[in-house]
Design goal:
Pfam families: HATPase_c_2 (PF13581). The protein is globular, with a radius of gyration of 16 Å. The chain is 34% helix and 28% strand. The chain is built from three helices and five strands.
């Protein structure tokens, strides 16, 4: 008779933001920092905070909707997902030196293991993996 061992459940933190405005960015970064510390993944905190700030700023600037944020521990790191209710997918491009905006997703793509955009019925999910 063989023993069956269950894998430990992945730890995660989920939040719903009914409105995204600049005032929520600091508290959300703090929540991400605290959870990564609890999960002993503090070394990922700087990039995770930068990434969640970029994704939420894009929701504020482009989607003009609320959103859902999920930070999930994986076997070798974390995944951060932001789901909003606007169908328009982000466009990532390498910015020219004289452009004043449009660098965030490009920089995040250079820092993250993966950066993906997924269309959903009635919105989209943007996520990155560290």
């Amino acid at each position: 008779m063989s023993a069956i061992t269950a894998a430990p459940a992945a730890r995660q933190y989920y939040m719903v933001l009914s409105e995204v405005c600049p005032e929520v960015l600091g508290p959300v970064r703090e929540v991400v920092r605290v959870y990564l510390g609890l999960w002993r993944k503090s070394e990922l905190s700087f990039v995770a905070e930068l990434g969640v700030t970029e994704l939420l700023t894009n929701v504020h600037k482009h989607a003009h909707s609320g959103c859902e944020v999920l930070v999930r521990e994986t076997a070798d790191g974390i995944t951060v997902e932001v789901t909003d209710f606007d169908d328009t997918l982000p466009v990532m491009k390498e910015p020219t030196p004289d452009e004043e905006s449009g660098r965030g997703l490009f920089l995040l793509s250079m820092l993250a293991e993966d950066l993906m955009f997924e269309p959903l019925l009635g919105g989209k999910r943007v996520w990155f993996r560290l």
